[in-house]
Structure prediction request, 1229 residues.
Amino acid sequence: MRLLSARLSAKRRSPIAGLLVVLLGLLAVGGAYTLISPASADTQQADQSTVQEGHRLFLVGCSTCHGDNGQGVVTKRGTQYGPALAGVGAAAVDFQVGTGRMPMARPGAQAQKKKVLYSPSEISALAAYVASLAPGPSVPAKESYDTSNVKNSSVVRGGEFFRTNCTACHNFAGAGGALSRGKYAPALDNVSNKHIYEALVTGPQQMPVFSDEVLKPNEKRDIIAYINSVRDQPNYGGSSLGSLGPVPEGLANWVVGIGALVAIAVWIASHSVRAKKGAKA
Amino acid sequence: MSTATTNGATAARAAKPNPLAAVGTWADERTGLAGLAKKQVRKIFPDHWSFMLGEIALWSFVVLLLTGTFLTLWYKPGMSEVVYNGTYDQLRGVSMSEAYASTLHISFDVRGGLLLRQMHHWAAELFIAAMLVHLMRVYFTGAFRKPRELNWAIGCLLLLLGTLEGFTGYSLPDDLLSGTGLRAADGFTRSVPVIGTYAEFFLFGGEFPGDAIISRLYVAHVLLIPGVLLALIGAHMLLLVFHKHTQWPGPGRTNDNVVGYPLLPVYAAKAGGFFFIVFGVTALMGGLLTLNPVWRFGPYDPSQVTAGSQPDWYMGWPDGALRIMPGWETHLWGFTLSWNIFLPIIVLPGLMFTILLMLPFIESWITKDKREHHLLQRPRNAPTRTATMVALMTFYGITWMASANDILAIKLSLNFNDITYFNRVMVFLGPVLAFLITRRWCISLQRADQDRLLHGYESGIIMRSPEGAYAERHLPVSETEAYTLTARDREEVPALPSAADEDGVANRKVHLERLRVRANRFWFGSNIQKPTAEELEEARHHADHELQQISTGSEPHRLEAPELESSDPGQKD
Amino acid sequence: MSTTPHDGPTGTSPESSRENDLPAAMERPRADAPAVHPGDTMADPLADPGLPAHQPRPTDVDPRLERRAERQVATLFGLSSVFAVLFVISYFVFNIGPKPTIIAGYGAANIALGVCLGMAFLLIGVGAIQWARKLMSDVEMVEMRHPAASSDEDREAAISSVMAGIDDSGIARRPLIRNSLLGALGTAALAPLIVLRDLGPVPGDKLAHTVWKKGMRLTNDVAGTPIKPEDMEIGQLVNGEPAIFYAKKADGEPVIEGTELNQAKAKAAIIIVRMRPEDITPAKDREDWGVAGILCFSKICTHVGCPISLWEQQTHHLLCPCHQSTFDLGDNGKVIFGPAGRSLPQLPITVDSEGYLVAQSDFTEPVGPSYWERG
Prediction:
C-alpha cells in the first residue's frame, strides 16, 4: 500500500466514521429490544372447562410439535420435534410458557427465553390440560417460594446449596454458563421466584430434576432466597464486568489498563507544539 | 596598581553556600559516589513512546510492592478452619479457611481494604501485560541484539517469575475459583512421570488440599519470588544504564551516540510522573472495576466449582493448550503416562520459554552479526524476525482464546465443541499463516519505502498532460526522511561453504555451516536493500525528468493546487 | 558490512528484486561504489545531515505562555491535593461493614476512595509531565557511547589477576585439595536437601482409596439426608457425599472435619443420576452397579480433578466446566469429548435394608487425575 500524503486526505472521512455508523446501528437495534415480562399464573382448580379451554389452546399453539394429545412427535430419523408431555405436570407448563420459552420459534438445542405469548389465564388453562394427561408436579404454592420472611441463616444455607448444585452450570453469580454443542444454562438475573422453583422441580431441557424428596421445599426456598440476595447485592467493588470471572477482567486489563497507559505514553513522548517560525527563544 | 576584583565600595560577603552541595559533600566523604553521580545525573535518554512500555512494568511492580505491603498487614495465610462471623451476610456461619476469612475481612471491614486488594490485583495484571508489550517492542525493533542479549534473558526470567508470582498471589484468598486452580495444579503435578505423586504430596504436605499450601504459597509470594524479582529488575536496570538506551536512527543519531534529554530534570520528571500516572490509573481501576469478587465465589470446597473457571489471563495460554489437547494417555506395564496433561502444561511452557530465551542467540547464529547495535530497526526491515514474533504471538493468542472457549460460547452464541476443533487446527495453521502473511507484508512495506525514497511521495497533485493523460506529481521527500529511510544495514549473504577448502582438507562442519548459510539467506533473502548513492541520484534525476515530461508543452492542467509546505515543487530540500 | 564486488555487474533497477536465490540488489557489484566502513553503514548512500536545529516551543518564546504553563502545572498539583483531601474525607464519610453506604447500587466507599486516590496521583504525574514538556529545556543533547567491552588492557589485566590468584592458590597443582573440597561441598549440600524430606508424607497407596466402603449411605451434599431410589426421578441429579461426612461422635463433634474432611471430599464426592434404563449400557461386570436406572459416579474429573456436576439430562452427558471434558454416563462414564484421558470411575450401589441407597464397596479404581503408578 502506498503511503499517501495526508495533504488532500484531511477533509475525507475519518477512519473511525465507519465504526461509528456500526455502533449507531447496534444501539438502534439494541434499543428496540423489548424486555420480557414473565407472566405469573395463579394456581387454579382444574375444572373441566379449564381443561377443555387448555386443550383448545394446545391444539392451536403446541400440537405441531407435541402432538394433538401431547403424545410427542417423533421424526422418521428418530429425533423428536417435541417430547411427550404426559407427566410433566402443570409446573412445567407454567415455567415454559410463563417464561416465553414455549412455544419455541423453531426446533433447536436450546429453548430461549423470549416474549411471553399467553396471558396468565391462558397459561393456567394450558397447565390444567397438560396436568390432566398424567399426574406430575403442580404449580407450587406461594409459601414454597416466598422469601420475604427468610432469615439470614437460611440465605446462608441457600448459598451452600447453590454453590454445590447450581454454580457448575449457572456460574457463581448466576450469570450463566456454557453446555455442550451450543446449549447453555441461562443467566438468573431476570427470573421470578416461582419460575426458579418450577425449574428446580421439573428440570427443563438439559437442567436436571431436583425432586422435592431429595432437595426439600424449604431448601429450595433457601436457594431462591440466596439467588435473590446476590442478585440484589450492591456492587461493592465497582462495575461487575458481567460477573463472568477472569475472562472479562483480562479484557478490561488490556483494553482499559494497557490501552490507557500506552496512550498516555504516546502523549508523554510526543513532541510538544513548536513556536511559529521566526520566533526567537 | 591593584588588581582588585571589586571596587571595595561595599563590604565583602561570603557567597551563599549551596545546601545541596553541603549534603553532597558529607555523603561523598563517606561513599565516594561523586564520580558516579557526575556521569549519571545528566545521563542522556532518547525519547520515544515505545521506550516507556518497560516503565509501565517497572512502576506496576512498585505499586505491587506498596499495595502488597499494606495487604500483609491484615491478611492471614492460614488454612485452619474458622467459622465466619464478619460483615458479609451471605457467608455468616459458614466454615472457611482463615485465609479466606481474612480476605473477607479486608474487603468488608477494613476501610480502603477492598481498594487495596483490587489495586494490587490490577497492578499484577498490568505488570505482566506491560512486560509482554515491552518484550514485543524490544523484539520487533531488534533491541535485544548484542550487547543486550543478557538483558533479554533477564527479561524473560522476569516474565516467567512474574507469572508465577501472579499465580501464587491470586491463590492466596483461597476462594472457590483460585482453589479450583490449585486443584488443577495438583493434577498437573501428579501427571509428571515417576515423581509426580511424590512432588504432589511434598508440595501440599499430604493429600490435596492439605493444610500447608496457602502458607507455603504466601512465603513464595511475599518473600522468595519478590526477592528474586527485585534482584533481576536491579540487574536489568543496571545493564540498561551501563549500555545506555537504544535509539531510532535518524539525523544526528549514530550507533556511537545517544541523543535525547538528560535524566535530571527531564526524565526524572517524565519517568517519575509516569509512576504517579501508573499508580493513578491502577487506583482508578481498583475503584471502578470489580476484580476477583471473592465473596461471591464463596470459600474453596473440593466438591464445588463454578462455570467459567479460568485462571487469570496470563495463565490463559497453558490453560487453553490444556483444553484443546486430546485425551491421550498411555498405559504401559502398570504405569500411566498422561500426555494430555504433561505435554501442554509441563513440556509446552518449558519449550516456549526456552525458545523465547534463545531468540537473540538463534538470530546471532543465523546472521553471524557480532557487532554492537545501539540503533533500532524498523520491524519492516527485518521481515523474518517480525514474522517470527507474530507467529509466536498468534500461537499465544490462539491458545489464550481457547481458554475462554466457554465464555465465548455463551457470549457469542457459539458452540465450544466447534471452537475446540477449530483451535486444534488453528494452533498449528495459524502461526504458519501469520508468519507468511507478516513476512510478505513487511517486504511490501519495504518496497513502499523504497518507492518513496526513489520516487518521492505522492503529493496529491494530479497533472494532465497535453495529450490528456493524468499523472500524479511526486515530490521528493525531505532530507531528514530520506536519511532516516536509508539509515539501515546493507545485508550481505555469504556464499555456501564447500565441503573441502582449496587444499582439499575436508570441512567437518560443512553441514552445520551450510544450514547456517541457508538460514541466513532465508532470514535476509527477500529484503529490499537500500539504494547506493548512484542509484539514488539516478532515481531522483529520473523523477525530475518525469516531472518535466508531464508539464512540457502547455501549462499543466492542475486539478487542485493546495498550499504546499516549505518544499518548493521541483526543488530538493 | 562492506560491499564486496562480485563478478558480472548488472544495471537492474533496485525495484526488480527477483525471488530466486539472491535479490538483484545484493548481487549487484559496483566497483566504483564508495568504500563503506563498518562504523558508518548509515552514511551510505546519504550523509548524516546532523541534528536538526532546535525549534523553540511557544513557552520558550512567549513569557505569557510560559507563565500560563506554570499556572497550569500548579493547578494540576493543586487539584491533586484537593483529591487527596477528598480521599481522607471519603475514608470517614462512606461506611463499609454492616451498614455500607450504597449509592446507585454501588459501594460508595470503594469508588470514592479509588477515584480520589487515582486522581490525586494521576494529577501529580500529569503535572510533572506537563512541566517537563512545556517548561523544562527540550534542547536535544548528545552523549557519546562507549563500547560495552572494557579496553584490551583492562581485560588482559583482569585475566592476569585472576590467573595470578588461581596460581597462588595452587588449586591447579593440588588436585587432592581440589577434589576433596568439591567432595566436601557436595556432601554439605546434602544437608539442606535432606531436610526437605518432611515437606510431606510419601503417597503410599492413599490415592487409590476413599472413605467409601460397603454399606455406607449416599447422602445429599450440604443437607446430609440419605436418599431412597423412589425419591429420585428420571433426569435427576443429586450432588452427594458419603454419610460419614455428617456423622457425629458421641460428644457431638463431627467424625471427620477440617483438613481431613477436605482431603476426603476431594476424592469421595459423588454424583447420583437417574436415567431411563434403556439409555444405560452397562459394562460386562457392572450390570448390578445401579438401582433401577440410578447410577453413582465419582464427582472428581479424571483430567485434573475439578468437581463435575453439569448434567445434561436429555443427552445423559456430564460436562466438566474447567476444560470441557465430557463423559457419557449411560456408557460407563466414557470420555466422549475433551482432554480427559480416563472414564469416570463408577461407585457400585445397592439398597440397604431400610431402602436407602448405599455403596457396595469403595471405588474399584483410583479416583481423580491419573498418575504414574496408577496402573
